[in-house]
Every structure is written in C-alpha cells, then in structure tokens.
Design brief:
The protein has helices at residues 3-6, 14-22, 51-62, 80-83, 98-101, 109-113, 158-163, 169-189, 201-211, 252-262, 275-281, 294-303, 317-324, 354-366, 373-381, 385-400, and strands at 39-43, 67-70, 86-88, 123-128, 143-147, 195-198, 215-217, 239-243, 265-269, 286-290, 306-309, 329-332, 346-349. With 429 residues, the chain is an alpha/beta fold.
Length: 429
C-alpha cells in the first residue's frame, strides 16, 4: 500500500526506514558471486516512496554503482539511497505535467520502455508491475524480475477497467482492443526474463497463469523495527481498526456494515474517493480519522482490539505491520494475507461479504478472542528488512553463479567464483 493512500504524506518517514536499511545493506558484504558485477536496475517509475521503492532501495544500497532505468523520475520523491543512483529515464520524462497524469499514459509505456538500451552489464534486475520486466538484457546476461504482479490492466484488472467505460460503448471497444494488444505484448516480453521472483504465492500462481512460468517467492520487507509492540503493553481497547485507502476494492463498506449491525466500535484510518459514500453508510460507532502519521498508525495497531482486513491484496503489508505490533488480525482468506495470518493470532473468513466478516468477529469474540501476541510478532519478523535482503541477494548470487544453468555470466573482467550452492525453488517462510 502506498503512503499517500494510508494517510502519511508520500515519502514520510523515509529517513527512519532507510536508517534501518543502511545499517545492514552495503556493497561490502555482498555474497561473493555478486561482488564486482556490473548491474542494471529497472523500475517502472519513481514518484514516491511506497512498498515497491522500499524493495528497490535494498538493491540500490547493495549496488550503489548500478545504473537505474525508469520511465519517469520526480526528483526528491524517494529515499537518498535511490536519489543518489545514476538514473536514466525514458522520453516520457519530458512530457509537460507528466507527474499529474502519468498513469493515463499506459498505451505509450511499452514504446517508452523500448528506448532503454542496456550495455556492458552482467546482471539485470527489474522490479515490475507494469513495463519494467520488458527490458531487453544483452545476450547471455541473466534478467531477474521481482514481480509485484503481471500488468494489472491487461490481466486481472481488465474487466473492471472496461466496466468504467460502460456508458461510452465506442471508447469501451477501443479500450478492449488496446488491452488485447497490451496483454499480447506483456506475455511476449515475459520471455525476456530469465528468472521470475513473486512477492507471494498468490502472485506466483498469477505469473504461472499469465506467462506459463514458474517463480521463486520472496515476500517484500515490512519495517518491523518501527512497527513493534508498545514498551509497556496495556490491555487492548474495545475498537476495531481499518487502515486502508478508501477505494471500492478494499471493501471497507463491508466492515462498516458489520459494525453497524453489531454496534461495535470501528476506527478507520485512510483517505480516498470513497470517503463521502462510506461516511453516509456509517453509524454512530464508526469514526473516520483520515490521513494519519505512521506514528499514529503504530499507536492504533498497539491499542486496537483487532485489525480488520476485508480486501484482497497481492501481499498485504498492513496485516503484517499489525502483527509486528502484536495486534490480532481478522481478514478475508484470499490473496497474500492467507499466507501470513492464521487462527493463532486472529481469524480468517471465507467469503467477501459483511455477513461472513460479522460472523468471523462474533465467533472470535465468542471463543474468548484467542491471540498470541508473541507468536504474531515472530510471524511478522519473518518479513523483516534483513530477512528480505538476505533472501533476495542469495537468490541473485545463485543466478549470477549460473546455478542450474549451462554456464555462468560471461564476465571475463571478474575472477573465477566459488562453486554455486543449491537453491530451493521457494525461498519464503
């Protein structure tokens, strides 16, 4: 979830998060197979410091001399580690006012990405949810893609996008044709990736369905140094918590409906275009706080009876942040959250309805609100920044060593490397 949708201003608390990263992420302690490599990094766009940029930052610290390719770059919008890189943009950078409407330039992005020309590199790493994975590595050079999801509008978001044009049939037909071409292009350019890395089993399945490719799985990092239990824990209060962008697919209306019926208190942190509609639905026990600082979000995680998470996410960072603070989580059993939450520290429910959510809360309370905060914290620590860094760099080292390949990277300027280690297909958990 990006910072602007949760309530913090874009780039908020960058210095705190990166201070933790800088203590452990340096080029000096790279695995031997990665030392001395000429690396190219590719990221869709640099317009804020969100979850994807926190993944990128780890690689920027590990490979500070790498060249970073991106469609557009709003200077000063990301962390110092990213801003200090040698950044190469596309022709879209020169479009007047591009930062206000760049998402509407989707039809132009494949051609713009085609202008990236990579030379004199030994390893290419793309971080992609749109076009970054389409970059063409030089012959014989591995291309590892850390995939947040296949291009959303071309695949699982396709019908929702077309439905938005239901009142304009001619534009709808044109949009369908465009999305058909984008899907073909996205599938074809997936062949340029030598190794896919998915952020969750959910995305691993999606990559298999879209590209007919297998993937490693490495979940993204969660700032468990910042999100932690209160120094002096007190009994949890009686309110349930939502931390979310106020947009339709987050299903905040289902939580409001369930709490209206039961009379339970619900506190909602977040902003978005749905706020007015949701406020009209809310009863007297529902409170909207709007945008809040990360410090305020942490405080609410520490005090709430439980976090409610009714949406379906590719991974779901918010539930893991709540677990890191020792909070119970009641969530829809779909998407990435089904991989991070279980009944030892919360409750999962099967269907995306207010009735199912209400029944889950009723059942959890009737059972005495079972929850092990220490176990929740240990689960969250599996997704900490150091764990993410180790998993990702170890995988890149295996790729660079030619593990499972006919030969390693052609790099005559680098001394011979040690024999490669064996590496499992899945590297999470």
């Amino acid at each position: 979830m990006d910072a602007s949708s949760r309530g913090a201003t874009p780039g908020a608390r960058i210095s705190e998060f990166t201070a933790s990263a800088s203590a452990s992420v340096t080029s000096e302690d790279l695995p031997p197979a990665l030392q001395g490599l000429r690396v190219a990094l590719v990221h869709d766009w640099l317009t804020g410091m969100r979850g994807g940029e926190k993944c990128l930052e780890v690689l920027c610290r590990a490979f500070p001399r790498a060249t970073l390719y991106t469609l557009i770059h709003r200077k000063g919008s990301t962390s110092p580690a990213i801003e200090s890189m040698a950044i190469r943009t596309s022709p879209l950078q020169g479009v007047p006012g591009v930062f206000r409407y760049y998402r509407h330039l989707l039809p132009l992005m494949p051609a713009a990405a085609g202008r990236w020309k990579l030379k004199n590199v030994d390893l290419v790493v793309s971080l992609s949810h749109c076009v970054a994975k389409s970059v063409q590595a030089p012959p014989g050079v591995p291309h590892v893609c850390y995939c947040f999801t296949p291009m959303r509008y071309a695949w699982q978001g396709r019908e929702a996008y077309l439905e938005s044009w239901s009142d304009r049939p001619i534009r709808r037909v044109m949009a369908r044709s465009l999305l058909n071409r984008l899907r073909d292009w996205d599938r074809d350019t997936s062949k340029r990736v030598s190794d896919f890395v998915a952020i969750s089993e959910t995305i691993r399945d999606r990559i298999a369905g879209c590209y007919h490719r297998d993937s490693h799985v490495i979940p993204p990092p969660v700032d468990t140094d910042f999100y932690d239990p209160a120094p002096d824990p007190t009994p949890r209060e009686d309110f349930y918590l939502i931390v979310s962008a106020l947009v339709p697919y987050k299903r905040v209306d289902q939580a409001i409906d369930a709490c209206n019926r039961s009379g339970r208190r619900l506190v909602i942190i977040g902003a978005g275009p749905e706020r007015a509609r949701l406020e009209a639905l809310a009863g007297p026990t529902v409170t909207f706080l709007g945008w809040q600082s990360d410090q305020s979000i942490r405080d609410h995680y520490r005090r709430c009876r439980a976090l409610i998470f009714p949406g379906e996410e590719d991974f779901g960072i918010v539930p893991v942040e709540a677990l890191a603070c020792g909070a119970p989580v009641i969530a829809l059993r779909r998407g990435g959250v089904a991989e991070t939450v279980d009944d030892a520290f919360g409750r999962l429910y099967p269907e995306p309805t207010a009735d199912a959510l209400g029944a889950a809360v009723d059942g959890w309370e009737a059972d005495g609100r079972p929850h092990d905060p220490a176990l929740a914290r240990r689960r969250a620590e599996l997704y900490s920044l150091p764990v993410f860094r180790r998993r990702l760099l170890d995988l890149l080292a295996d790729v660079a060593s030619g593990n499972g390949r006919p030969s390693g990277i052609p790099r005559p300027h680098i001394a011979a490397q040690p024999a490669p280690r064996s590496h499992p297909r899945r590297v999470h958990g």
